[in-house]
Structure formats: C-alpha cells, structure tokens
Design a protein that fits this description.
26 helices; mainly alpha
C-alpha cells in the first residue's frame, strides 16, 4: 500500500499582536516643534535683548527655510560663551527642522538641564527621541512635561505609544486613556489602546474598540482582520466567518482577509466555498493563492476526497501556464497516484524532472509509480537517483532496503537500513535491521 504524505491545513491565526496592528501616530512633529517657538511669559526662561532681536528675524524661517535660520542663529551665537536656555531651545528647534538631530538633542538637553521646568523643551526633546525610535529615552521627557502641567492629548498619546514600545502596557493604557479624554476621535490613540487590550487578552474591550474603528474607517482592512482574529481568539469561528464574508461583500477584503476566510471554510469542510475564496486569492496574489490552493488540494488528496481535489486543481487552468510550476505538477501527480493512474502520474513526474532533475520528492514518487506497476528495475533506478539527493536519502534508503529484501539481498538491505538510521533513528527501523541481520547470519 502506498504511503501518502499527509499535509495539514495551516493553522488559523487566532491572535493579533497589538504592535502588528498599531501604526505610529500620524502627527506632524515638525509643526509641534515649530509652533513651540512662541514663548510663554513668566513660565519659561527669557532671552537677552540681542537674542530676542535675532529670534524675531528667524522665527518665521524655521518652517520655510530651516537651513538658513540655522546659519543665522549659529552666526549670532559664535562669539558668545553660552547662550540662554531659551535661545538654546530655539537652536534645538532649528536643528530639528534642518534634520541635524545630534545638535538638536545637545541644545534641548542643555536647555532643560539649566532650566528644569522648561516644559516645551522637555516635549520637544521627547519628540526628537520618539521620531528617531529612541522610545525609552522619550518616556521620561514626556513624563516630565506631564508633571510640569502639560495636558495636551498629543503628549499623552506619544507617551502611551513609547510606553507600549517599551512593554509597559499598564502605564501605556493609562496614558492612552488620558489622550482619548482630550481627543476622543483620535484613531491613533484608539489603535494603541486596542493593541494593549489584545495583548492583555481583554477581548470584550478590544471588540468594542475595533467595532468603533470599523465604523469610523470602514475601508481600513486592518480593522476587519483584527476583529476577525479577536473573534477567533474566543473560538467564535462562525461569527468570524460572517464578518469576513461581510468584508468580501462590501469590497473591503484584501488578500489577508480572503486567505483567512478560505482557511475558515476549509476547516469547516466547505470545499466549494474554500476553493472559490482561494481562487480569488490566486487572482489577486498568484504566489499566495497558488500556495493555498495547492496545499488545500494536497489535504483533500490525503483525506481521500479525490473528486474535490480534482476540482481545486482545475482552477489553475484559467490562470495560464506560468502558474503552478513544479508544485502544481507534483500535486497533480499525487492525485493521479491516489487514483492509481500510474502512466498518467509518471507523465506528470517526467515534466517535474525536466524542470528540476534533482527533485527528490518527484524521484521517490516516480520510483513508487514504477513499483506499483511491478517494474522493479526502473523503480530501483529512480530510488537510486533519489538516494543521492540529500533531502530524499532517508526515504530512498528504506525503499531500496525493501526492494533488496524482496530480492533476498540481505547484506545490501542491511547497508541501506544502516544508512537510514544514520540520518534518523527510529525503533521500527532498528527492529527491522535486527531481523534482517539474523537473515544475513542464516544465509551465510
């Protein structure tokens, strides 16, 4: 009886990590920095009269021509020992706008070290760290700004995002809640909070948030996929299926949503629905769709559902000759083998070997096809070729051992069994070897 390799369906994704969903907050960071250039009287350090006169000249240039503004500010500062903390803050803004982050950091840090209650300098230093991916360094800056009285939702939101990136989910959740209290329509903060709820398996809260996000942005496929995975995390597969069907019906679903829906259909043994959905994936993304359809066909073949597998493979014909390649030919050969159509199977395998002469799987299949037709010499040739391909040496060794045993070539049988055991030790093969060795002794 031929051994058919059992392939299992890819397991369904049943959890979405928050960081995979939440994107970076979509804030205009340069605008925040530039707008901070107007000083708050009696709460922040003051400039000298000379510094203020120059500041008035360059403040409007920070957004439109930061490089020129930097040159003017540097020229003014060249003959001074140390500018005021306020002027260093403006220098930091100019350097940030010009993309000179190291100089911006140096000036912001000097400004807050000399004037620790300089709220906006702390915020801008935090923005600099955040925008360069230094989330751990940004946290104390935003936290200090909050302590100093900053209640802007953007500050809380950025603090939440940086805490989330650090893994401090409890503090991040509190920061996001503060951000949403000041800006309840902000999608970025809702996404961040959603990610935290999912990571913490707070699926009831997560579901409420994601439903709200879908309502606000129904065309964003990430939310549909996140909602489906939340439902799957609670083993609500029927509801997840209906949700994804709705996404398909409204034209929102992309390849990931279609793929997950196909997997759900396949798991529920809804063959026509799964096939149709995987075919849509094949049309939209040939590489992904091909893998899914072929995998599904192989599962059906291994389960003895040959007519259904044949229907799945028929879907490839409308895609043209370039789709499928070696894997398609091999899967067709597997179907023909299950149908015991040995000559047809061999023709498919010959095509595989024309494209890939050292395909161990095809060589093993070819050897088994010949063996099924009792053509042992040709079967032996195919297995010997597979023996010299590293990926199929183990299986070929066992097939050759069986042939040599039938021919009563016990010494050769031992040789092939020992080769197989050198690759993978199993009790069954070791017992087989012991029995054959006794035959070698008797034969001798």
């Amino acid at each position: 009886m031929r051994t058919v390799k059992i392939l299992l369906l890819a397991s369904l994704a049943v959890a979405v990590r928050g960081h995979a969903l939440a994107s970076e907050p979509k804030l205009d960071l340069k605008r925040i920095v530039n707008e901070s250039s107007s000083f708050l009287k009696e709460r922040e350090p003051e400039m000298t009269e000379e510094e203020y006169a120059l500041y008035k000249k360059v403040v409007t240039m920070l957004a439109s021509n930061p490089a020129f503004a930097v040159k003017l500010l540097e020229a003014m500062n060249s003959d001074k020992e140390q500018p005021s903390p306020a002027f260093q803050f403006i220098l930091g803004n100019a350097y940030y706008a010009a993309g000179e982050n190291d100089k911006a950091e140096a000036n912001y840090r000097s400004s807050v070290s000399r004037y620790p209650t300089f709220l906006r300098a702390w915020v801008n230093l935090g923005i600099l760290y955040y925008s360069t991916g230094r989330y751990g360094d940004a946290v104390p800056c935003f936290s200090k700004a909050v302590v100093l009285g900053d209640r802007d939702s953007a500050t809380f939101g950025l603090l939440g995002y940086c805490l989330q990136k650090k893994g401090d989910l409890v503090s991040a959740e509190m920061a996001y809640m503060q951000a949403l209290s000041g800006d309840p329509a902000n999608v970025d903060w809702k996404e961040g909070l959603l990610g935290i709820c999912i990571d913490g398996k707070q699926f009831t809260r997560a579901e409420s948030l994601v439903k709200n996000l879908i309502k606000e942005r129904p065309s964003d496929t990430r939310y549909w996929l996140a909602y489906a995975n939340i439902l799957l995390s609670e083993n609500r597969k029927v509801e997840a299926t209906v949700l994804l069907e709705t996404a398909v019906g409204t034209g929102v679903a992309g390849v990931p949503e279609l793929t997950l829906l196909g997997d759900l259909y396949a798991e529920q043994r809804l063959v026509p629905e799964a096939t149709e959905t995987y075919y849509k994936v094949l049309v939209a993304s040939p590489e992904v769709g091909e893998q899914k359809l072929l995998h599904y066909a192989q599962v059906l073949i291994s389960g003895g559902r040959l007519q259904e597998a044949e229907g799945v493979l028929a879907r490839f014909t409308s895609q043209g000759a370039d789709v499928g390649g070696v894997e398609l030919l091999q899967t067709r050969a597997d179907l023909l083998a299950a149908q015991r159509k040995w000559p047809e199977e061999r023709r498919e395998l010959d095509e595989v070997l024309k494209l890939d002469p050292l395909n161990g799987r095809a060589l093993i299949s070819l050897g088994r096809a010949y063996a099924s037709e009792d053509n042992i010499p040709r079967a032996t040739l195919a297995f010997e070729a597979a023996y010299h391909v590293a990926s199929s040496t183990y299986v070929a060794s066992l097939e050759l051992a069986n042939i040599e045993l039938k021919n009563r070539h016990y010494a050769k049988t031992v040789e092939y069994l020992q080769k197989a055991l050198s690759i993978e030790k199993t009790d069954a093969v070791e017992d087989f070897l012991v029995r054959v060795k006794t035959m070698v002794v008797k034969d001798g």
